[in-house]
Design the sequence.
């Protein structure tokens, strides 16, 4: 477990998880640098979402280590991992439908996280300013008072990204952020991701190859819980193993 | 002032709702009803504490407890123990084989006061116990369940089992608890006879003031970030967890607060009714209280008070005329509310009542504009003529 420290923002080493003998992730080694936007692709069941689950603590690993800024995450509780600076967006947009856009962002504001802190939490000018700032960034500046349930699917995706951005995480993990988005929304999202990956690491799971090509600094192809190929988009796309796996399905 | 308005009263609309309810409870009911009926309303209003606690826990927190009677009962028993000890002074119990202990202990061959009864000689200890015993109990239950992420139906079933266990315990240990009869024959509170008419009036008003106190407390919690987090957790618990919150702590807290609120109701019940028995602890009263909350509207701190009053009036009226049918009617009512009015009376009011008010307002506006135009006409007419 106690592997040496590295210079990477995120270092995943020998990570394995098995569900009743089935190894969903098998001896994964994976590194992420600061300012890097890394995309994970792979056929269904390759273990992509499971990797995110393991990093954010939703699933406990069987073996291996996950170090974020040299801090071991595998033993931490979910909320402690968040406090360490890891934010994660779920595959289906996970927002609070009964609350307004403003309240969704406010609830995610990283202050008043304890029971009594939240009772005493005040909507100060600073909080208000930050909420508006993030709302503008995710193209929802005009919809702050709208009930989140009324947003379009794409807007819900943005809102969830905004709920993570307001916490200023150093590692941002996005599970299929453009699913259900129109072409124009995809373009906007690509710009958004290119903007927000500065000063932090971003890990994205995505199927849309055009979109991947627009954003990815580096691509990892996952297949049956193992890394099949890694590199820039060009290299990966021309890798015969990758072509075989994708054509085979 | 602004802070109080927003956080404790819930803005202008909330303040109007509270004012109407306050007028009903503090003015209308005491003026209209005779003492017997008013005392009955006082008893119903002690159930309203539990209903309010369920708004916080169930309505907003999404955690259904079918064992709130446990906390109501614990609060009630704490108060009853104090009153019983005061009623069991050596003078009035001198015919017992052991004078100075409660009569039911003597009947059960106990010769000394059990240790856990001792501190209930003190009134201040009793008040603390009313608030803290249920709270600590709730924290223990909450900790062991919410930390293991037990929720939903499982939580409801376990709380129901706890209600049953506590009833069985109280009934079984009759030497210590008074058994199935409960703790009866309570007379005075620090020398003040609680059976007198004036005492009944005073207790009614104390109870009403406390009820508004917990409603304000509820408002304060629900209008804070904590309140929005409760809603968020009910919707998407995982999202809250992965936004950096320890969800279980929030649930434990709201469960403990709801236990405390229910316990205040229980203590006031004992004071107004003059006894406490296991029939207010078990499964049936716990479920009845959930029905009060459902009928009133589980998202409305004010609505549940109306719900509690209405269902109980209905119970009193119907069970006098058709005693066998009442339970079926109540079950039917619950099903109907859940199916057709998930937000209860408060939901119906939100949907239709407000429209009615607006309509009346508009009619007034209409007549006001009409009279304005008429007066303008006469003025202009007068100007033309001159």
Sequence:
């Amino acid at each position: 477990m106690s592997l040496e420290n590295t210079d990477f923002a995120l270092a995943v080493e020998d990570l394995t998880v098995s569900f009743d003998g089935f190894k969903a992730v098998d001896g994964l080694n994976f590194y992420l640098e600061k300012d890097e936007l890394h995309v994970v692709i792979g056929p269904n069941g390759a273990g992509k979402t499971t990797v995110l689950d393991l990093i954010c603590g939703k699933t406990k690993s069987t073996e291996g280590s996950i170090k974020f800024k040299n801090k071991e995450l595998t033993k931490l509780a979910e909320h402690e991992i968040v406090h360490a600076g890891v934010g994660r967006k779920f595959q289906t947009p996970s927002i609070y439908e009964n609350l307004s856009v403003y309240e969704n962002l406010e609830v995610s504001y990283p202050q008043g996280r304890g029971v009594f802190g939240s009772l005493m939490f005040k909507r100060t000018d600073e909080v208000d300013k930050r909420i508006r700032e993030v709302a503008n960034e995710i193209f929802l500046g005009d919809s702050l008072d709208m009930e989140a349930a009324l947003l379009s699917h794409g807007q819900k995706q943005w809102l969830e990204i905004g709920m993570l951005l307001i916490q200023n995480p150093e590692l941002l993990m996005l599970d299929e952020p453009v699913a259900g988005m129109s072409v124009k929304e995809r373009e906007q999202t690509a710009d958004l991701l290119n903007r927000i990956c500065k000063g932090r690491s971003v890990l994205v799971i995505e199927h849309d190859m055009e979109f991947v090509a627009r954003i990815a600094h580096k691509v990892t192809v996952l297949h049956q819980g193992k890394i099949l190929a890694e590199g820039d988009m060009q290299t990966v796309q021309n890798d015969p193993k990758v072509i075989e796996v994708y054509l085979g399905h | 002032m602004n802070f109080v308005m927003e956080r404790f009263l819930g803005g202008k609309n909330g303040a109007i709702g509270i004012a109407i309810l306050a007028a009903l409870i503090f003015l209308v009911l005491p003026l209209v009803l005779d003492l017997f009926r008013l005392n009955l309303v006082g008893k119903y209003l002690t159930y309203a504490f539990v209903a309010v606690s369920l708004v916080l826990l169930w309505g907003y927190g999404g955690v259904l407890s079918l064992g709130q009677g446990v906390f109501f009962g614990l609060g009630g028993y704490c108060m009853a123990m104090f009153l019983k000890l005061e009623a069991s002074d050596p003078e009035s119990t001198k015919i017992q084989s052991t004078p100075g202990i409660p009569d039911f202990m003597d009947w059960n061959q106990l010769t000394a006061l059990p240790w856990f009864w001792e501190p209930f000689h003190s009134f201040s200890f009793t008040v603390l116990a009313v608030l803290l015993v249920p709270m600590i109990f709730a924290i223990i239950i909450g900790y062991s369940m919410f930390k293991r992420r037990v929720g939903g139906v499982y939580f409801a079933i376990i709380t129901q089992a706890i209600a049953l266990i506590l009833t069985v315990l109280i009934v079984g240990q009759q030497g210590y608890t008074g058994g199935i009869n409960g703790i009866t024959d309570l007379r005075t509170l620090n020398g003040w006879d609680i059976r007198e008419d004036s005492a009944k009036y005073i207790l009614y008003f104390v109870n009403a003031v406390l009820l508004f106190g917990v409603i304000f407390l509820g408002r304060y919690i629900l209008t804070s970030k904590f309140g929005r987090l409760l809603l968020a957790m009910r919707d998407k618990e995982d999202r809250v967890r992965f936004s950096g919150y320890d969800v279980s702590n929030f649930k434990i807290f709201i469960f403990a607060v709801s236990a405390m609120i229910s316990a205040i109701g229980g203590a006031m019940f004992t004071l107004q009714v003059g006894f406490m028995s296991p029939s207010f602890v078990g499964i049936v009263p716990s479920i009845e209280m959930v029905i009060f909350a459902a009928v009133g509207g589980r998202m409305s701190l004010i609505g549940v008070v109306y719900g509690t009053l209405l269902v109980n009036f209905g119970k009193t009226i119907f069970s006098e005329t058709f005693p066998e049918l009442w339970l079926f009617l109540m079950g039917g009512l619950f099903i109907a509310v859940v199916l057709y009015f998930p937000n209860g009376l408060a939901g119906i009011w939100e949907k239709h009542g407000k429209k009615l008010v607006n309509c009346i307002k508009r009619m007034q506006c209409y007549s006001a504009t009409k009279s304005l135009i008429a007066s303008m006409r006469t003025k202009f007419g007068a100007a033309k003529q001159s």
